[in-house]
Amino acid sequence: MKTKKFTILHSNDMHGDFLAEVKKGKGKLIGGLALLSGYINKVRSEEENVLYVISGDMVQGSLIDSEYKGISTIEIMNYLAPDVVALGNHEFDYGLPHLLFLEKMANFPIVNANLYIKKYYKRLMKPYLILKKAGFDILFTGIITEKVMDSIKQDKLIGSFISLEDASAEVGKITDAYKNDDIDLTILLTHIGFDSDVKLAKLLKPEWGVDMIIGGHSHTILEKPKKVNDILIAQAGVGTDQIGRFDITVDDDTNSIVDYKWQLIPVNEDLAEPDEELMNYIDSYKKVVDRKFNALVCKLAEKLVHPLREVETPLGNLVADAFAKVAECDIMFVGSGSIRVAEIGPMVTLGDLTACFPYDDSLARFEINGKQLKKIFSHIMREKNRDGEGECYQISAGVRATYSDKEKKLKSLTFKGRSVKDNQIFRICLQGYHASQASSYLNISQKELRASGRTKIVSTSAKSVLEEYLRNNQNLESKVEGRLVYQK
């Protein structure tokens, strides 16, 4: 039996988490790309056969990334020198043409199997990569989440085989075409969420020889990999505070993993010396950004938090109320994922605000009836939507919605203390992205949204609206009020 040991380091959903921080009560630096790079360099020097892979969402989530539209991120990632990277949904945030520009900047391969140019039935990205390491051949391919298609759906040229069944078939195409006897290890880099990884693993045929799924998107922290259909599934949370590590033994005769150890390793100053060259390079970006973004926007009455996107939060309420006032609507629906920080304030700089709300989108107002409004709340509040992969919302003041998880239905919906009637007319406001995806995210069709004929774009820049609102309203406070109530 000919065997070889490999070390596979993996990250996902790094979201421009460039800088180390001192966490409360810890007293030591945690995370950041300089420490992460230092550890990767250390492992590469200590172990013989090392691979570093990233399962999507390198960009979006930091001030530096937002200011440079991902260019800074790719330049910094070139320092880390990953062996292969898969696309995540946020790689598309700056638009498809810009993504293709970023791909050309990258000194590392980016793989995706199921994103197509529809007219020509050609894959948009490199569909697979075979890496030769220590005389062994390792096949990588990438699978993307449905949310990517939401973000570029208006581009009629681009399409995707995006259901799990279709994604499974794409894996089959790649492995059938390229997985010959010389392929010793097959790894899927996915960005579909942990639960979907498990479902995908069940769909994969054993003959395709997939050994591992290294995933992202759901920000899942694991104690150990899950094994499904003889496939190891792992993920490394979110950001750069930790990194996943597989130490595996591969049998050349059976093309399989015969032994493995997996760890989720905390990244801190005890782990390795920071990469000083990378630290200096990141600092060159930080100095430019700090000069621009240290200006004070406002002072809040207290710190506001947004710990979970699936529930009502004080910060979410503030943002929803600000937009509702400017849009002059009855009910504002703010995508919880639009708010990218866990807390803000009381002093809020332009940098804080940009990190909190990096997406610049329009605000659109529509008129719908009470029956349609109940349908929306029934859809967005259902338990299945609150699994880390659904699209959840923060709601403006005046609403009281109660949902029973046990009965799986909306129990009550009131507005300004009165029960919502089916024939009652409401003005709702949505971010442009969510309006364009209303059918899947809110369970209301474009036809229903626009049926009244009184649709209006109230702002072309939600970010500007929020900034101006905060500048002109000091010492704001916000509490959780029971706008969204979930009964077990």
Segments where pLDDT lies below 50 for 5+ residues? none
Oligomer: single chain
Tell me the count of domains: 2
Overall shape:
globular
CATH H-level homologous superfamily name of the largest domain: Metallo-dependent phosphatases
Mean pLDDT: 91
Helical content stands at 25-40%
Q: What's the CATH topology label of the largest domain?
A: Purple Acid Phosphatase, chain A, domain 2
Beta strands, count: 30
The CATH architecture of the largest domain comes to 4-Layer Sandwich
* Radius of gyration, CA atoms, in whole angstroms: 23 Å
Task: Draw up the topology in text.
Blueprint: E1 3-11, E2 21-22, E3 29-30, H1 33-46, E4 50-55, H2 63-68, H3 71-80, E5 84-86, H4 96-105, E6 110-111, E7 115-117, E8 122-123, E9 128-133, E10 136-144, H5 146-152, E11 158-160, H6 164-178, E12 183-191, H7 194-203, E13 212-214, E14 226-228, E15 231-234, E16 242-251, E17 256-266, H8 276-293, E18 296-299, E19 304-305, H9 314-327, E20 331-335, E21 343-344, E22 347-349, H10 350-356, E23 363-369, H11 370-380, E24 393-395, E25 399-404, E26 409-415, E27 418-419, E28 425-431, H12 432-436, H13 438-442, H14 446-450, E29 456-459, H15 462-471, E30 484-487
Parallel strand pairs: 1-4, 4-5, 5-6, 10-12, 12-13, 13-15, 20-28, 25-30
Antiparallel strand pairs: 1-16, 2-3, 7-8, 7-11, 9-10, 14-15, 16-17, 18-22, 19-21, 20-24, 23-28, 23-29, 25-26, 26-27
Helix pairs in contact: 1-8, 6-7, 9-15
